[in-house]
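A quick aside before the break. I want you to see a complete sequence-to-structure record at least once, exactly as it would be stored in a machine-readable document. Don't worry about memorizing anything.
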Amino acid sequence: MIIAAISVLLTGLVLFFICLPLIYRKVPMNDLYGFRIPAAFKSEQSWYDINAYSGRKMAGWSWLISASGAAGFFVPTKYFLAYTIGSTATTLFAVGIPIFQTYRWIRRK
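That is the input. The structure line, written in tokens, reads:
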């Protein structure tokens, strides 16, 4: 149970720290790291704008993942399966929502 909680907590923290260079526009256009969609590759300005926006959204939602991990330290062992399912759903939700928000923002832009 503790390993699952630590894993989820670290997932949220790693996601947050991975987003920081995107937020601060430190990641140049590349093929490996960032929100890599055709609209982002139109120009350098588009790349930085889209990645800064998606980085802010993803960093914000990553705290929900971290909170889910921290909650795992207080869940009784008999609820391990429910915690695992819930934290997995929370992680998918917290990653999916900012992706959706970014696509919606790009369409409005």
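Two observations worth writing down. The chain has three helices and no strands. The CA atoms of residues 1 and 78 lie 10 Å apart. We'll return to this after the break.
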